[in-house]
Write a structure and sequence with these properties.
With about 550 residues, the chain is mostly helical. It has 22 helices and 12 strands. It has a domain at about 270-435. The protein has a two-stranded antiparallel sheet. A two-stranded antiparallel ribbon has the order 3-10. Strands 4-5 form a two-stranded parallel sheet.
Length: about 550
């Protein structure tokens, strides 16, 4: 089994590229960077490793997918009594801790800083392989765009910094911010070679590709034009990115990338793992003849993902972010029920999502563990589950299955699947190493259908056929419903609602939800504050550091 080791080359990268305590205070660190580096392909590769290392966030509550899921009306805050100022504040659109999202902010700007250094010095490197040069150059542009899109969707307009020199910029306008994102992605698309998926060496999986850049461009275009009511994205150097441009890139990805849909949707997720040494006895897996496709070459659906490793830990050079904290945080709180391991109980599922699926949609039970259901294929979980375990809040009897700790039977014990396969680490907080899929092929198809590709009907049919459903016209309402069910729990629902301007209507429906708080029956209504525009507060420490240059987001002012 392949798991990319983020530590490869990272020591040198961190020494030379670390951003320190905050992105606004980088003078000393910039001086550290002012050396003769980036002069060989190997040094560029090391620097890219440092930039990729800023994709995961060390503080689990700051995981971007986790945050966007908690913000969505399809998920509740959950957690325990000690999470009032964390996930429960996020769910209720409260301030909570004033720097609740500081790790997300700093780590993302750290990634931008590292990408900026590579782009500024890239021409110093002497390459003999033009394809390798263009691939590396394109990856740097892709990463900078990815980091800025992460900030733009979660925080709205933010300071735009395209040079590693220390600056204290005000927020950019949406046009400037998305223009730079689109410019970087267009450059990445044009630079990176059109290498089909089956020709990419396994050790290179996890790196950005031309196809990932085309998919990210569609995501950025749909959010910007939808949320801000625009028709295209103006580029900083002149010209625009139009809908037709984006459709062309999506069609190119579909036709030429070598990516496709895994035959059974459920085999995308590790709970379907089974092998000769650890055969699954989970009735749902056995009865449906499921088997996890894994994270290597057979998984043609993953276009871009964060790869995790067995090197997570609390002491340098190990970091928590080397393990998948998203799965830990979204696991069932302090309870293990084979094949599901324990976690922190954050992001319980709104039962209205379960009720919204069409009959015979395999993604309903394939994505959601319903402890109120009497389906025999869930085994004894719904009979053994203890309500109110360790002060669990917002229990609905529904848990997501996509990102959840997975355990296997090792003698009389339940141990993490990756621990069983790799032999380390034997710690429930560190043994989740599942890929965090950021772009997958089904999303590409649904974005193409939404954009109005000439192949829209075919794209939508492909996704629905795999789910066991019949054809429907590719109307916007049908595509909205399809995205909710196909991409549930993958961090996209909240942004879809924002860009469709459906956010207030969706929250209005998410009311009077029966929950148990510490085992006590209560009624819960999900909160949304439209005055925020749907964006998070900027960490207050960063606002203060700017000395009045950067203003707090609307609706979050003290």
């Amino acid at each position: 089994m392949r798991k990319i080791k983020y530590l490869a080359g990272i020591v040198a990268a961190i020494i030379m590229m670390s951003c320190g305590d905050d992105f606004l205070d980088t003078k000393n660190l910039y001086e550290k960077l002012d050396v003769d580096y980036y002069s060989t392909p190997e040094e560029i590769e090391e620097a890219l490793t440092g930039a990729y290392a800023s994709l995961p966030i060390d503080a689990g509550m700051n995981n971007p997918i986790l945050i966007s899921e908690i913000l969505s009306p399809d998920r509740l805050g959950g957690g325990g009594s000690d999470d009032v100022d964390g996930c429960q504040a996020c769910d209720a659109f409260r301030i909570g801790s004033e720097d609740l999202y500081l790790d997300l902010w700093e780590t993302t700007y750290e990634g931008i800083f590292r990408a900026n250094m590579i782009l500024k010095r890239f021409d110093n490197a002497e390459y003999t392989d033009e394809n390798a040069k263009n691939q590396a150059h394109g990856e740097a542009y892709f990463l900078r765009a990815f980091f800025y899109l992460r900030l733009a969707q979660l925080f709205g307009p933010v300071p735009l910094i395209t040079d590693p020199a220390p600056v204290n910029n005000p927020k950019a306008s949406p046009e400037e911010l998305y223009g730079q994102i689109a410019e970087d992605l267009k450059t990445a698309i044009e630079l990176m070679p059109a290498t089909r998926y089956e020709s990419i060496p396994i050790e290179r999986l996890g790196h950005a590709t031309k196809w990932a850049a085309e998919g990210l461009m569609a995501r950025a275009f749909l959010f910007y034009t939808g949320y801000y009511d625009k028709t295209d994205i103006p580029l900083p150097g002149g010209g625009t990115v139009t809908k037709d441009d984006v459709i062309g890139w999506i069609d190119d990805c579909v036709n030429n990338s070598g990516h496709g849909l895994v035959e059974d949707f459920r085999n995308l997720w590790p709970y379907t793992f089974s092998n000769d040494q650890y055969p699954s006895t989970y009735p749902y897996v056995v009865d449906n003849n499921l088997k996890w496709v894994g994270e290597e070459g057979a998984n043609i659906e993953t276009i871009f993902a964060i790869h995790y490793s067995p090197y997570g830990g609390w002491n340098a050079p190990q970091k928590l972010s080397y393990s998948n904290q998203l799965a830990l945080y979204m696991g069932i709180r302090h309870q293990s029920y084979y094949p599901f391991g324990q976690g922190w109980g954050i992001g319980t599922v709104n039962p209205q999502l379960w009720d919204s699926f069409e009959p015979d949609d395999i993604r309903q039970q394939g994505s959601i563990l319903n402890l109120k259901d009497t389906l025999a294929s869930e085994g004894s979980i719904n009979r053994e589950y203890i309500w109110g375990q360790d002060q669990q809040f917002h229990e609905t009897g529904h848990w997501q299955k996509k990102y959840i700790p997975v355990v296997v039977k090792m003698g009389a014990d339940l141990k993490g699947m990756y621990f069983a396969l790799l032999g380390e680490p034997d710690n429930m907080q560190l043994w989740n190493m599942q890929d965090e899929v950021l772009i997958r092929f089904a999303d590409i198809l649904l974005m193409g259908a939404e954009l109005g590709s000439a192949n829209a009907q075919n794209y939508l049919d492909r996704v629905r056929t795999r789910a066991g459903l019949g054809s429907v016209p590719p109307t916007l309402e049908n595509i909205k419903r399809e995205r909710r069910h196909e991409l549930a729990f993958e961090g996209l629902r909240y942004f879809d609602l924002l860009r469709w301007h459906d956010i207030e209507a969706a929250f209005a429906e998410a009311n009077n939800i029966p929950v148990k708080n510490i085992g006590v029956d209560e009624i819960y209504t999900v909160t949304y504050r439209p005055e925020t525009g749907g964006f998070l507060p900027i960490p207050e420490s960063q606002v203060r550091l700017s000395n009045g240059v950067m203003k707090q987001n609307t609706g979050w002012e003290e």
